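Duplicate of #3305? Posting structure anyway:
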């Protein structure tokens, strides 16, 4: 597969996953805001609307850091995009490319909220532990990061570096 097709995969996957994230956030505003928690899976997963003014898991929520957080996230997203582009065209690099796409889309989804609204819309809640409410973009980032760790430990021992 040549560079062009790796970017087609990147762009199409980004569009689809970003649309899903933004749709769920919009749906949650229309259907969950001001409502009591909805239980999806008893004792496991619920839906409850929450606006997060801070960074991940509400860190820095008391600060008015909208543009600082947005700028930092934009720089990180540019770095991810550059590394994705730089990666060699070997087939095994898809073990790195796919998680990078997930991290990129998750960061982009939350960046859109941060810039457009000043907050990030969260709606997913684990009911079996006391944990922060989160959104689909957070799931993308978490799965992507843990996948990169797994790949680095078990599949590609020496991550390529520029």
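Output from current build:
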């Amino acid at each position: 597969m040549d560079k062009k097709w790796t970017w087609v995969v990147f762009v199409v996957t980004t569009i689809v996953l970003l649309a899903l994230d933004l749709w769920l956030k919009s749906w949650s505003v229309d259907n969950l805001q001001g409502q009591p928690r909805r239980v999806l899976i008893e004792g496991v997963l619920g839906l409850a609307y929450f606006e997060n003014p801070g960074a991940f898991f509400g860190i820095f929520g008391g600060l008015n850091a909208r543009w600082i957080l947005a700028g930092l996230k934009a720089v990180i997203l540019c770095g991810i995009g550059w590394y994705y582009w730089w990666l060699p065209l070997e087939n095994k690099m898809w073990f790195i490319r796919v998680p990078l796409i997930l991290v990129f889309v998750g960061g982009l989804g939350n960046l859109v909220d941060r810039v457009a609204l000043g907050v990030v819309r969260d709606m997913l809640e684990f009911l079996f532990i006391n944990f922060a409410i989160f959104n689909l973009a957070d799931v993308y980032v978490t799965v992507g990061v843990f996948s990169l760790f797994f790949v680095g430990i078990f599949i590609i021992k020496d991550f390529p570096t520029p």
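Confirmed duplicate; merging threads. The mean pLDDT is 91. Strands lie at 38-41, 45-52, 120-126.
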